[in-house]
Sequence to fold (328 residues):
Amino acid sequence: MFYPNLIRERETIMSEKNLRYSLYLGCVIPNRYPFIEQSIRNTFKELGIELVDMQGASCCPAPGVFRGFDIATWLVIGARNISIAEENEADITLGCNGCYATLLEVNHQLKHDKEKRDMVNKHLAKIGREFKGTIEVKHLIEVLYYDFGIDKLKDYVKIKFPDLRVGVHYGCHIIKDSSHRPWGGEFEEPRFFDELVEITGAKSIDYKDKLMCCGAGGAVRTASLEVSLDFTREKLENMRKVSVDCCMVCCPFCHLQMDLGQMQVNDKFKDIIGESYKLPIIFYNQLLGLAMGMNPGDLGLVAAHDLKGVPPFISIQPFMEKIKEQMV
Fold:
């Protein structure tokens, strides 16, 4: 666990070297939300952060599914992905909370448990691979907040959005379990994501049950869609009550649940919600890029469309109109 003096030491060390990471995309970003990848690649490029592709990377695999049924398989597949980053000689960064949970925890367990590491390497040897334990796994929020540094990041903000009201959704796996997350003990009432939003001038608005799950995790969305959507409905209702302009996420699976799931909530619970929810769902790098003065098209902020089964499922036009008002 990090504490303030260690955080300052880490920021000093990282500011003295070039930032270079292996980019792990996972499944949902390339298959469902490629515009999230676009926003990550282009904002990091603008910041001078080098991203190296992980050739041949697979599913992480998902912590709420594989780990629940077969821990050994979960460890081996996770270790195989980590070994690709080790070949790149670059720490992993990623933009998915679930992938973060798996790869961070696999990396941690194998570094500290020789028996598990030996078991994993016995299987990896069959395909000419080995887990060495030479890299770290970092969420892109961690990279921006600590490695690049939030104070340095402020210097890149050219446009501010003081009238933008944001409902920040952390998601589960980015903050818990807390034993080897980097947030300095901030896991019951975290502020790091809110702080990153607020450097854009936007206001992070508190709302009831802010740290509640989106409803998708732990295979709940697959096993019991209605239960899953009821979580989403409650989050949407709590954000609607405080009149936010968008929901800000840092995970594509949360994005999927709040975007596609929102459309499903409007259908499944139409008799009890009153007016349909129309809350734009925005990935953090998209807001950051706008504040840096980047073109919306370079951030995957796509125009409204009538295509079936193509995200975003909930129009982002109200968000874009709010942003344009403040860019004039």
